[in-house]
Amino acid sequence: MKTMHSYHTGNRVGKGTYWDLANGHRIDVEQEAILCGADSSTYFRIPTGVMLLAGPIVGLFYVLCLPFVGIATIASLAA
Fold this sequence. Notes:
There is one protein chain. It is built from 1 helix and 4 strands, in the order ββββα. The radius of gyration is 18 Å and the shape is elongated. By secondary structure, the protein is α+β, with helices and mostly antiparallel strands. It folds into 2 domains: 1-46, no CATH class; 55-79. The N and C termini lie far apart (52 Å). A 4-stranded antiparallel beta sheet has the order 1-4-2-3, with no helix packed on it.
């Protein structure tokens, strides 16, 4: 199983999807390429299975936290 690795701007990478989590920039590489972007960009190669599982987990976290966000908003408006 492939794991998540970090790559920096200018690294030569193989086929896959690379994400810059700081700004959400995504690069799809068909064969082999050199990552472009800002000098300080760090990209992560995330396997497809991990991304498919992350969506529902992030959605569940959002649904669980939504009531607390509402309470905090009402409290800050009342203060």
